[in-house]
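I have been asked to look over a protein record a colleague put together. Thanks in advance; the entry in question is below.
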Amino acid sequence: MAAGEWYCCLDAELDALRVQARDAVHAHNTLPPRQRGNIAPDLAALFAEVAADAFIEAPFHCSYGMNIHLGRRVYLNAGCIILDSATVRIGDGSMLGPAVQIYCSEHHKDAALRQDGIEIARPVDIGENVWIGGGAIILGGVTIGCGAIIGAGAVVTRDVAAGATVIGNPARQHRQTTPPDD
């Protein structure tokens, strides 16, 4: 899985990692907000990297957690799902609207292999200051450039250039935005 090659998701070691993630996700989603803070401690400890000021609203779900990297001032609104079979990097200042979904894994197209749990995982890289509208879906292997905007409900199947705005299913460039002056 980590090598980016076909693997069996029914592996006992992977199942144990998913159980650990479900426990941490449950703690995050059920702690009272004042006790949870920005991210419940169990969930933050599971992540590969998380800035102290990153914030995840509940409910949240991830597959493993150990492949997630959250930069400074990252905000994930309620209902976000990250199926992190591969590395997911979300850059500083990026915001994900409610119910945004990131799917790294792709099941095999051959039905027999799919029944055997064969899949492949591709990373997702979201640059700095990206805004992803509610209900958008980001597929594995996608890179979203800094300052891009993903419209609500968009299904992103290809890379998005820095500063671009994409909308629709599949997402297509709507316009190029001008980066704001710092």
